[in-house]
Amino acid sequence: MPESSPGAVRDPFQAIADPTRRAMLARLRGGALRAGDIAEGFALSQPALSKHLRILREAGLVRVAESGRERLYSLDPAGLRGVIDWAASFEAFWPARLEALGAHLRRKGDG
Amino acid sequence: MPESSPGAVRDPFQAIADPTRRAMLARLRGGALRAGDIAEGFALSQPALSKHLRILREAGLVRVAESGRERLYSLDPAGLRGVIDWAASFEAFWPARLEALGAHLRRKGDG
DNA sequence: AAGTTATATGCCTCATCGGATATATAACTG
DNA sequence: CAGTTATATATCCGATGAGGCATATAACTT
């Protein structure tokens, strides 16, 4: 079998826990970028950058396209989907829920 | 002034990085719960649970209502907003962007 | 009052994280 | 070819994270 291996798999939520990585993702919203350009101005060593990219990759949030000696990174819709959906699941939960809270408290009898 | 102090402030993204805490948040989607009930079945010590709750609190993702000796936790829409919006910001970014990368990338396919 | 229940803190330990430097690999350039 | 450029890996280190047990605090119970 060939090897477009996903390699290690990492929790996307852990991946976006780091502010630097979120900034990198934000940059990629503008379109694909060469690895080196992603952290431009971030005051980050090249190896550190590379490590962050690896984590984002393993989390499935970005993907790479090799082009000569450069790697073009871009957001990976598939991987982002999970995060987006998870967050969205909290979008419209509480209209009636606060009601429940009040009821619960009331039941406790402290009007 | 009294003290409904926000206390320490914590990165919400770091808060949701932990699977246990995400599970707890998920539970709270069903409405407010007593601290002890939130992790029911999680195989987690009480102190550990309490610590997770503290983190979620400091991240502004949940809030507490004291009721006697119990604390009723519920999701905090305000705090969740940030995460939701951040995630949503990646919802519709790539329609034309990948185009710039080249057809090269497209054949990668993303289900 | 003493006992029990609900929750939070303190402290310790172990694993993981993020960054740095040095080095490796691979692809261009002259 | 040697030299440079783009990116990745190896290794070390200090900081942080998550979990546990013991303990503190406060509120119910009897």
Report on this model:
- Two copies of one chain form a homodimer.
- Chain A is of the alpha+beta class and 111 residues long.
- In chain A, 49% of the residues lie in helices and 13% in strands.
- Chain A contains six helices and three strands; from the N terminus they run H-H-E-H-H-E-E-H-H.
- In chain A, strands 1-3-2 form a three-stranded antiparallel β-sheet.
- The C terminus of chain A is likely disordered.
- Chains A and B meet through helix 2, strand 3, helix 5 and helix 6 of A and helix 2, strand 3, helix 5 and helix 6 of B.
SS field, number of helical segments of chain A: 6
What global shape of chain A is seen?
Answer: globular
- Percentage of residues assigned to helices of chain A: 40-55%
Strand content of chain A: 5-15%
Find the structural class of chain A using helix and strand composition.
Answer: alpha+beta
Q: How are strands sequenced across the largest beta sheet of chain A? A: 1-3-2
Average pLDDT value of chain A?
85
The major pleated sheet of chain A works out as:
3 strands, antiparallel
Number of strands of chain A: 3
**Poorly predicted tracts of residues of chain A:** 103-111
What is the assembly state of the chains in this entry? Answer: homodimer
Distance between the termini of chain A: 67 Å
Q: Greatest interface and its residue counts?
A: A-B, 40 and 39 residues
